[in-house]
Amino acid sequence: MFCCKPLTGLNGKCRLNVAVLTGGIGSERDISIQSGVCVADALKQADFNVVTADIRPDRLDILQNDTIDVFFPALHGKFGEDGQLQQILEDKSLLYTGSGPSASRLAFDKMASKKAFAEAGAAAPAAIDFKPDADTRLLEKQLTRLADKYVVKPIKEGSSVGISIVSGTREAIAAAQKVYSEFGDCMIEQFIAGREVTVGILCGRALPIIEIRPRTGFYDYHAKYIDEQTEFLFETISDPALAENIKAAALDCFNALDCRHFARVDFILTDDGIAYVLETNTIPGFTTHSLLPKAAEKDGLSMSDLCRKIVETALENKKNSVQRTTLSV
User: Fold this and answer.
1) For residue 12, pLDDT beyond 80
2) pTM of the predicted model, to two decimals?
3) Who contacts 145 (Cβ-Cβ below 8 Å, separation ≥6)?
4) Would residue 225 show up in a list of annotated catalytic residues for this protein?
5) For this structure, is 98 an active site residue?
């Protein structure tokens, strides 16, 4: 279990000024705003001075505020998790929470991250990078070898936006064409039957596993953020060794992408005990429905403790980096 200690800024200030960055431009803008509100409230309870900024690529005035000690991005999807915002923060030498630009870009690209997961030894569903100009007969043959049921999804979206589950090669191609026309890059993935489980990572440690049981059987956008009947259950994996293996796989995926501070790794757990990694979310939700706060609470951390721990870790990383630089000079 984590514990929190008194926190001071790089200049010794007792109360830090934190800017929560929210909003953005992606399809997950509304959820980003909700996450931002929850993070800001939690940080205020932790006795930080907090400002909230609804940002866009052309509205970044908050980054010019030199009184801010730490920036806390709470944006999901495009411009939030894809590395764009993180690169801007890096270029301005600003201290911020969460993963850096390269890890964010890699995690946001579902096809690229699959390669990293494979290199880390994690099982992942097979997938095809769909191209609208591909030869249909050849694509059907590839899909037949891949599976007989498929998950069609945008390569660079989150919150299950644009995802559909279909049977048959023609249905998969039709769904992929629709996704490509709406979102761009698209993948057709092997459908894996099983239980959906997720592992939050906080400061290099795996939090308790959550099993997700949506009422409709598919954990889509509605089930994630709206449906109050979606169940989030702990301790549903009775085999301790299997639970530890899933946690270890989550940490392997987190490290394979070079993530930092926090993330959430999603899996499908089959009846024969194989955990197939689906994706890593570098800025998972911080809403009342969100899974990272639920896992942290199970581990003894309130929402306020969780957000405080994230800020604390970012600050400690910065202090250690400054010390290493000083010693090397």
Assistant:
1) no
2) 0.91
3) none
4) yes
5) no
